[in-house]
Amino acid sequence: MRVVLQRVKEASVTIEGQVVGQIGQGYLLLVGFGPDDTEETLDYMVHKITNLRVFESEPGKMNLGLKDVDGAILSVSQFTLYADVKHGNRPGFSNAAKPSLAEPLYQRFNEKLAATGILVATGQFGADMQVALVNDGPVTIWYEK
User: Which of 50, 78, 109, 122 is catalytic?
Assistant: First the structure.
């Protein structure tokens, strides 16, 4: 599982001109799954993300977590995080989990995030999405398990 986390002032996902997910302050998560990901992988990522402290408690000190600032999460599925670009100019995606595995993992991941008490908005798995954000910092963190 790979997650690119961006601290945002706001973020949204639009599909065919309709906003389907939107948050204010919080995290935009770009989420990809590999073929070996499990419930244990999801639990690890949920713990790491929901306990991350990257909001400022005072100038220059990142010491507050998402719950401390009443932040939210916008979770967007993105199989392209598993792109193989070692050969040629066209990325290969054979390292990404097949949709039949990735979609249920994505849904379960979002459920587990929401179960922590954090507001979770989402994109739509497999859709052509336009993602807009105002990056805060910028602060961008890469997770892989």
Answer: 78
Burial of 24 (0-12, 13-18, 19+ CB in 10 A): middle
Q: Give catalytic status of residue 6 as yes or no.
A: no
Selected catalytic residue, list 80, 107, 124, 140: 80
Query: In residues, how long is the chain?
Result: 145
pLDDT by residue (tens digit) across 63-94? 999 999 999 999 999 999 999 898 889 898 98
Count Cα atoms within 13 angstroms, Cβ side, for 30. 17
- 80 catalytic per annotation: yes
Residues 1-29 pLDDT 10s: 999 999 999 999 999 999 999 999 999 99
Active-site entry in 79, 109, 122, 125: 79
DSSP bridge pairs for 92: 84
Quick check: is 78 catalytic?
A: yes
Q: What is the DSSP letter of 69?
A: G
* 25-63 pLDDT per residue, tens: 999 999 999 999 999 999 999 999 999 999 999 888 999
